[in-house]
Amino acid sequence: MIKQISMVEIIKQPKLEYTYGETLDLSEKGVRITYDNGLVVYDVAYDELGGYGVDVTLTDSEGVEKEAIDGDKLTVTKHNGAYLTLIPQTELSNVLSVKSQEMKINKKPINVNINDVTAIYGDNPTVDFSFTYNDSDFAYGETQDSAEFKDNLTEPVFVCKERDGSTDINSKSDVGRYTITMTGAQSDNYRFVYNNGTLVIQKRKLVVKDITDGIPVLTSDIIFDNQGQIHKLDGKADNDILSLENLVNNDKVCVLYKAVYKTEQPTTKCDVDIEYVSMDDSYGKSYNYEIDETESVKNVSGGRINNRELTTVEIVSQPKTEYVYGEKLDLSNAKARITYDSGYVEDNVPFTELGEYGVTIGYPNDDGTITAAKDGDVLTVPDHNGKCIELLAQSTHKVPTVQTDNLTVEKKSVRVWRVYRKSYSL
Predict the structure, then answer these.
(1) What pTM did the predictor assign?
(2) 274: how many CB neighbours lie within 10 A of its CB?
(3) I need a surface site. Which of 9, 143, 379, 416 has the fewest CB within 10 A?
(4) Are 83 and 59 in contact (CB under 8 A)?
(5) Residue 183, SS3?
(6) Phi–psi pair at 379, nearest 5 degrees
(7) Collapsed DSSP state (helix, strand, coil) of residue 349
(8) 196, 220 contact by CB (below 8 A)
């Protein structure tokens, strides 16, 4: 008589936890079989049960049952929650089938490698964002283009924020380094591991075509300090006086430069060389630019070289100050000292010649005006007594006004003769 199975027991569960890409593993020796003749067989592997008259089925998460075959493909959607059933083939009644615990199928990690990007300020860097999947992370021969992968894929999206953490990177984002990451990817069988990329926004080349105004002036004091030299003066120019190419976003910028004068001859307008041009990073959006030295202007018009100018006027000797009505102003002894911004001093200049040096002399009026004074003026008590002579310098410098001592004009004495007439009687 052929022995019959009377009981099947799971002593040790089969492998129950998998990651997508792993296949069904029935190699675990965890089943005990008891026969009606008292024979007990221990540690039977799940993939050997067929040889003992025990069928093994796999019921997926949708309730579909099929033969369990060692090496079967497992997916998250169909097999997470699946289980094995051990069904003994016996003629005995009331011999129960046995179910395993449920399987757990984990999503397989797949690396998303976000590529580094280098962009120029003013351009939209996001158009160059890209990524790749690690080919070795795919299971069952899939690729990023295979239907098995694409059909249940929600594509990831890029995330790249400015330093405030909320503004998306765009064509107006400042020069610097930013992190590119991704989010939102979904797949039935894969979980996504994002390997961040780096965005580097570099400075934009700016071409200075012309500087239309504000060229620093070469003054005589600068010349005096370094006579016979090439003079390099610090200059600064913003959008209002710059002609620019390659400026974007209506940015406000400012450049620093050296205006190079190769002559010292006074002139109201001349060309100057432009050197050492750089951006003034403290102004506006200047820090997002750098000068294109090859294409930028090397020489501009609008320079000016000033002749020497007065800085001080001093009275060396006073004019005659005491008069009687009817006398004339006498400036013959009046002298002045004139100092120029170049450092040159003209000493003992007669008041009568001051006009030739750009100095006006006059009598100050109560309303703030002056009446011109000249040698030989007829002096009167009402108009000149108590008045001074003021020296006013014509200069771009603020030259202090100087005054002589006050004039004294006295009334003129008049002698009156009395005539007596003698009378005679006849």
Answers:
(1) 0.71
(2) 22
(3) 416
(4) yes
(5) strand
(6) -100, 140
(7) strand
(8) no
